[in-house]
Amino acid sequence: MTKNGIYIYKLSDTHLLVEFSDNEGQVYKQIPIHQNNLLVLHQITENLEVG
Fold it and tell me: Where are the domains of the chain?
């Protein structure tokens, strides 16, 4: 199960609603998180060809 969350909605100037889901997309938690407690990650889901 993944531990990465997806930003869903800006609740205020300091808090964001973040959704956590499994690899099939089933949501198991939505929580407000202060923006200072977030670490932005990028996940590459496709193989990219370099030309």
Answer: 1-51
